[in-house]
Sequence to fold (1108 residues):
Amino acid sequence: MSSINDTVEEINSKIDDVKFDLEVMGVGPEDQPGQVVGVLAEFESPAALMKAAAKVRDGGYKFYDCHSPFPIHGMDQAMGLKPSVLGIFVFIAGTIGCIGGMALQWWANAYQYKMMISGKPLFSFPAFVPVTFEITILFSALTAVFGMFHLNRLPRLHHPVFYSENFKGASDDKFFVSIEAIDNLFDANRTWELLERIGGKNIEFLVAKK
Amino acid sequence: MKWQKDTFRIEGAEGASTKFYIVGAIGLFLTALGINANQEVAMHSYLTSFMFWMTIAFGALFFTLVHHLVNAKWSVLFRRIAEQLISVFPIMAILFLPILYTVLSNNDVALYEWAMTEEKMETLDLTKQHLLHAKHIYLNGLFFSVRFLLYFFVWSVLAYLLRKKSFQQDEKHTNELFGSLKNLSGPGMVLFALTVTFASFDWLMTLNPYWFSTIFGVYIFAGSVVALMTFLTVLVTILKNNDVLKDEVTAEHYHDFGKLTFAFCVFWTFIAFSQFLLIWYGNLAEETIFYKVRWDYHNWKGISLLLVFGHFLVPLILLMSRLGKRNVKFLTCMAVWLLFIHYVDLKWLVFPTVSTGEAIANTHQFILKGETVMIDMPAPFAFHWTDLTSLVGIGGIFLGTFWKNFVSQPIVPVNDPYLEKSIHFHNINL
Amino acid sequence: MSAKANHEIDPFDPPLVEGGHSFGEITEKVCSVVEKKPGKEPIYWWLLLPIGFTGVGALHIFLGWLFWEGTGTWGLQNQAYWGWAIVNFVFWVGIGHAGTLISAILYLFRQNWRTGINRFAEAMTIFAVCCAAIFPGVHIGRPWLPYWLLPLPNQMGMWPNFRSPLLWDVFAVSTYFTVSCLFWYVGLIPDLATVRDRAKNKIRRYAYTALSMGWRGGNRQWQHYEKAYCILAGVATPLVLSVHTIVSFDFAVSIVPGWHTTIFPPYFVAGAVFSGFAMVLTLSIPARHMYHMQDLITMRHLENMAKILLLTGMLVGYAYGCEFFIAWYSGVLYEQAIFILRASGPYAWAYWTMVACNVLSPQIFWFKKARRNEFVLFTVSIFVNIGMWFERFVITITSLSNDYMPSSWEYYSPTLIDIGTFIASFGVFIFLFLLFLRFLPMIAIAEVKAIMPEADPHHHAGHGKDDH
Fold:
């Protein structure tokens, strides 16, 4: 019995993943002016936000986020986020850079354009280390930054939270929980009530504008 | 061994230090027999083992000084371990006496070629004679002894003051006392840098008195910190397995051990590679001889490559990820491996001067241009039984002294204002 | 973290943000600088702007003249074939090391005080690298062919020589520049979002919206963001070491006496950090007064920088000493000769200026009073800037102009074009820095907030903002 429930849950979560991808890539439903696309609630402090995050997570929501002007230590656990996969991207890119850098130098100086200089062998491993190193670092750094942009789906100039005027404080000194309407569990009234129950202030619907 | 959690003391473990001393004495006795049989190999073993334990003590001194200088908080739990490790300097000075004796008795076979008598020097070829004469002001028995006394004096006094003030803090913490530890550490660090540099020149670089490298002191320093961090990891794991600091030391602390081990392995590589690249690129025979004897003959190439892999690539790859650093068992295994590699590194520095009787002609390009110096061809790299006995012998005395002091005091600075912070410490990044 | 510590200020760990500011006040303090109406900039900004602008113009004239006439307009000689150009290059690249050091290495070592000065120092890094790039860029002989330095396929089937340290330099400096820019930009994103959210007019809103890429400050974003920042710090740390290491290879792989010594890599890195921190002090002391940032760039920040100056000053002193000792110990006559010549020959004045500025002047920082006196800090930082320039001068010129053949020895003097180009490069630096101060938040707002005690979710709300 539990296995059936598990399977259903698995399928649901897969649907959510697909939805998430579609939505962030801008393929999701067009916001109609006047349509409620989410709920936003303000919280007092980092501590309150963290408690709220855990409760929204326990409520089963997937399309929610906790906004703060600075990263809050321990929030990942509170929201139940999986560790970032960025490290793996960077490791792969760095490895490619390392091998590619050395191969480039071998190809250029020991194979394609053989130039005997300063009595060094054509393939001078020690002399090729510095450039190999630099290319490794360059690849890793570029991957770290652009990989982060990809994982965060940046740039993305339109998002439901930006419909709120109050949300401008999220980059200053305010703390918010937002829950988006595309979530399976989303129900304007019930979601509002949940946010109210867990101590949210200044709760508002995110209403799409033109 | 009984762990008193409230007072941070280990009770009923004094006996272990006596055991260490006994094992040490046996080891030293066997090494003495070895020296009697083959003084060249056995003394090289002895020097390697001596440096192995000394580098741990160097690392501990550095750890203590840096801890105070940067007002570190996470490392408070381990400060006392480092402080007790540096209590070994006086006894290590005594263990240095056999090495000093070879120099004072003009024994140029056992370790240092430059220790030979004036008469014997006359029999050398002219280039060697010239160089040894030029360096005689520095490389002579008297000045060598004076420097030896000076180094150990500096280290012992620093250790004494750091320990005394730290124990006073256990009685009663005052800001003045705490501040004075920090004030002491500034000049202490300057003295540390100078003495360690010249000690490594004196004891290791002059094994081949015709070779020189300005970075040599930094190389030894880098290895020392790796030695200390790995030793600390192993020691803390052993303590934890015996219920000591079981709740206080967490994966967070291991994570930091891992990070520092990783960082200093990379730093060691940076220094080692810089030295290698510059010498390789410059391609002057008087400098490249250092790598020539460690690459061209017998099995030395394999050992040189082992260092590249073991001291750099293995820790680089395995300690890069967060998981590797936070897994206690895994990190402890890595630490044991790195301690072994550190030993090999020292042996790699010391043993090429064990000669086979054959010689390599090395034609100088820079010093006395065109002159040829005959350098001893190194014996193959091999482990000798004296390696083990001297390592155990010096280690027994080292650990016995450490342990005796360690269990006589609380094993953490109990009144340090950051002790709580250190116990509940969490890594934010990486 | 005993109960006591919550009420008393820890003398060994004083607060990093003074004045009991709330999050909102910090935003206001930093952003208001960027949001001033044109013409409302501080008076010093207006006084410095023409200087910077003149520098930019003068640089064009000097470089134009150089391209027209050739490198003969510089004081280069047969022996001293690397003159001020390389000295200035190494000087500027060295200054460019503090930024990444502060953002990367201090980050990894959890030195939270870096947040007050990192934005600043990173900007300085980028501008210093820009200035540095001028000198080798115009010195390549045929300045219209710089792309020959890159491994680009071409119809002549030629490839660069990867065994040359000068080519390593191309890779090192360009990688460093790229990574520094990335690092700087990543750090800026949340702050640009703050400026965006406060923007009053359309142009500003559009500009900062585009620059901040729609940052929402959600934890799902912060999570990857922090990971990226951490990885960048991790890769930038060896990078920052490698750049000056490779610069030192330019010298040390050759067998020129005084250059060919194995301590050059760590010695150059220490020197670079030393000069970089000196420049951060030189800039931050006036800037904190100009913009009233004393609560964010506190005495503690300045004191810590003074300590780093003392440390790195001692490290370069250590390297000078080691070189001297090994020159004697090695038995190499040429090495000995060059070091004696440095200390007593025709360039002894430069050598002793270097020692006095780099080794002696920071010694005053053994005293806490000196470390907390802005006048002393500023003066010493200027001395160090001068001393570090002379260090590169001494290394380059003494070893080149006195080579193996005394018959070819000559005293090197720069021409007016040399001097002018160097001074003009300061103008470029000042100009870029003034633009930075005007248009971007000079302090990392999000990072400063994150290290305040109130940012900790376990912080006791009852203590309020006067608790640190």
About this structure: Chain A touches chain C through 70 residues (CB under 8 Å).
